[in-house]
Specification:
Layout lengths: L5 H15 L2 E8 L2 H5 L2 H14 L4 E2 L11 E7 L11 E4 L3 E3 L7 H9 L10 E2 L6 E2 L6 H4 L17 H6 L4 H8 L3 H11 L11 H9 L7 E6 L8 H8 L1 H15 L3 E7 L3 H16 L15 E7 L8 H8 L23 E5 H13 L1 H5 L9 E8 L5 E6 L4 H8 L15 E6 L5 E4 L9 H6 L8 E6 L4 H15 L5 H18 L5 H17 L3 H5 L2 H9 L1 H10 L14 E2 L9 H5 L5 E2 L7 E2 L9 H5 L5 E2 L3
Length: about 625
């Protein structure tokens, strides 16, 4: 196999861009997991058929030898970020984006927006606050208020086309690292950039590389940690699906910096599309001579493998991840030794998460000073967040460190929604940031600049980037229980504090939610949480109590209401509901009594009915069948 050199990269880039400039219209259909689940592949097929039915010649990729100005290209892309509005269809160069597209819309799109330049109003994004129709990404606040550096090419490039990646200056940074920079220079550049690990810990990336570089060993490894297990988080998955070559290029540069010639991408089994696209990217890079023997004529080799994990949350921890790759049970080991000294198969190893590695080519290509212009003093660059929960614009976003929570929730996110999905303008209660390892931010934190240090000071953390917005109808005790149930189920069981402590914390939370708790329960919950945090073996165990301890600090009054008053202010805790029938609204139709599965409702026809609280299971059937809103206690 011939080795690719910079002239090959530049030639491919030039020819591709020259041919692309002659494309009449390009249709980009979002083919990330979210849009695919909503029917994007059917939309893609319908658009292809509509173009053929219109008698136009269709190409699925740029044809280098054709310069037909009427050429129509249709491609898939990775996640475009605006997940709540999918399937998404972008038409270039018109910069028109259609949302919630269905296959039956294809013919109209081709007729009006491809053959002509009309914009279809009904398929445009409508701002839920102003009612304004936005034509495309250049106009939509969700996109306009972001700085999409790492995500910049996701949603634009075809993730399965290496030539298009190269046309966007792909692998130029890797070529520079392998042929023009010494290993120590690469480490120093990454240190100067201020890049910190985006997987949760926030350790300086360049320092981690430097510690591994100076180790003396004939064999070293690089591992890309794609085991993204936080509930509601999908940043790494979207990067692997949307721009796999960027991740590979970051791994190549990391390997050059530490002296490694072999690397693993560890991806959880639940990410089949990410696995597929990463493997194809590796195969295409090998065929192109980017990976393999004698990379860029440097005399150095580079091989990358994809390893599928079984979905254990604990395998996001470095030592457990390495054990899994080695074929052992994924359980953490005490540190030291650190992976930099003794990692995979006992050799010095660098482990970075997907987002961290995807930022590396940008830094090497553009320089540390370029990267430093974004972010804060202690937190440089940008951060991706999976924005979910009670917010109008759920999806994948990227903002500079230092951006406030208010900017994210109200301007990018479009505002807080009620339980019916309507933007209320009010109703913000909290944000859970950092997933099961993170903590809560409240209304008083809306103007807090988000970075590593500020969040730690608030008892939270950046984490991998999960950001769940909650409205005032959210019970914070139940939220704490949700995350504790997750971490307890995912505990590997190796150390007693995590294995038994999380189990006891979950039981204590159940007592609070089900009305059995006393103040002793509350005090014990807090005490056990502090012990688990202090004594657990690995970082996952140490942070498992964080959602509970955080909500205890920020929402202590809700806990006390559950315990002392046996009341849940949001009425979400079933055992604490006070169910009754409104005497003024009940007409005695008997519908509730007939449907009650336990016979808890009594009363004569056309007479007031009553509920026996000793028998009632609070199932809600009576509330559902009553046509007169006479049943109280469920809303």
């Amino acid at each position: 196999m011939e080795t690719m050199i910079t002239t090959d990269l530049n030639e491919i880039k030039q020819k591709y861009n020259e041919a692309a400039a002659h494309i009449f219209k390009r249709i980009v259909v979002c083919a990330g997991t979210g849009c695919i689940a909503n029917g994007a592949l059917a939309v893609h097929k319908a658009l292809e058929k509509a173009i053929e039915d219109a008698g136009m010649q269709l190409f699925t990729e740029v044809v280098l030898d054709r310069h037909d100005c009427r050429e129509i290209q249709i491609t898939g892309s990775g996640c475009q970020g605006f997940c709540a509005q999918g399937p998404l269809v972008n038409i270039l160069p018109d910069e028109t984006m259609y949302v919630k597209v269905k296959p039956e819309d294809a013919a109209e799109i081709v007729e009006k927006s491809i053959l002509h330049t009309e914009v279809i109003d009904r398929l445009m994004y409508v701002n839920p606050v102003t009612g304004e129709h936005n034509k495309g990404q250049l106009d939509i606040p969700f996109y306009k208020r972001q700085n999409r550096l790492v995500l910049g090419e996701c949603g634009h490039v075809d993730p399965e086309n290496i030539r298009e990646y190269i046309a966007h200056s792909g692998y130029q940074a890797a070529f520079k690292a392998y042929t023009q920079m010494a290993d120590v220079e690469i480490c120093e550049e990454i240190i100067a950039s201020g890049l910190r690990g985006r997987g949760g810990g926030g350790f300086p990336t360049g320092r981690k590389w430097q510690l591994t570089r100076v180790e003396q060993s004939e064999k070293k490894y690089v591992i890309c940690n794609g085991d993204e297990g936080d509930p509601g988080a999908f940043m790494d998955r979207s990067l692997m699906e949307g721009n796999p070559h960027r991740v590979l290029e970051g791994m190549m540069i990391a390997a050059r910096a530490i002296g490694a010639d072999e690397a693993y991408v560890y991806v959880r089994l639940e990410y089949p599309l990410a696995v597929k696209r990463m493997r194809k990217a590796i195969e295409d890079a090998m065929d192109a001579g980017v990976l393999g023997e004698n990379v860029f004529g440097s005399g150095q080799n580079m091989h990358i493998h994809v390893m599928e994990g079984a979905g254990a949350f604990v395998c996001g921890e470095e030592t457990a991840l390495m054990a899994s790759i080695e074929g052992k049970r994924g359980m953490p080991m005490p540190k030291p030794p650190f992976p930099a000294q003794k990692g995979l198969f006992g050799k010095p190893t660098v482990i970075n998460n997907v987002e961290t590695l995807a930022a590396v080519p940008l830094i090497i290509r553009n320089g540390a000073n370029w990267f430093n212009q974004y972010g804060t003093v202690g937190s440089k660059g940008t951060k991706t967040f999976a924005l979910t929960g009670h917010v109008a614009n759920t999806g994948l976003i990227e903002v500079p460190f230092g951006t406030t929570l208010r900017e994210i929730v109200y301007n990018i996110g479009g505002g807080v929604t009620d339980d019916d999905g309507k933007v209320t303008g009010e109703g913000f209660k909290a944000v859970q940031i950092g997933g099961p390892s993170g903590g809560c931010l409240t209304e008083e934190d809306l103007d807090l600049p988000l970075d590593y240090d500020n969040l730690i000071a608030k008892g939270a953390m950046v984490g991998s980037g999960g950001l769940v917005v909650m409205n005032k109808q959210s019970c914070m005790v139940q939220i704490a229980r949700f995350f504790m149930n997750f971490t307890q189920s995912e505990s590997c069981g190796k150390c007693v504090p995590c294995r038994e402590g999380t189990k006891q914390m979950l039981a204590l939370l159940d007592d609070i939610i089900e009305g059995r708790a006393t103040m002793e329960t509350f005090e014990l919950l807090e005490e056990v949480g502090k012990v688990v945090k202090l004594a657990s073996l690995c970082g996952l165990g140490k942070t498992a109590p964080s959602p509970v301890l955080s909500t205890i600090v920020k929402f202590k009054d809700e806990y006390l209401e559950h315990i002392n008053d046996k009341r849940c202010r949001t009425n979400n805790c079933k055992a604490l509901r006070s169910i009754s029938i409104d005497a003024e609204k009940c007409i005695g139709c008997t519908a509730c009594a007939r449907k009650c599965p336990v016979g808890a409702i009594s009363g004569e026809k056309k007479q007031l009915h009553v509920i026996d609280p000793e028998v009632c299971t609070k199932c809600g059937v009576c509330f559902e069948v009553c046509k007169f809103d006479a049943v109280l206690g469920f809303n």
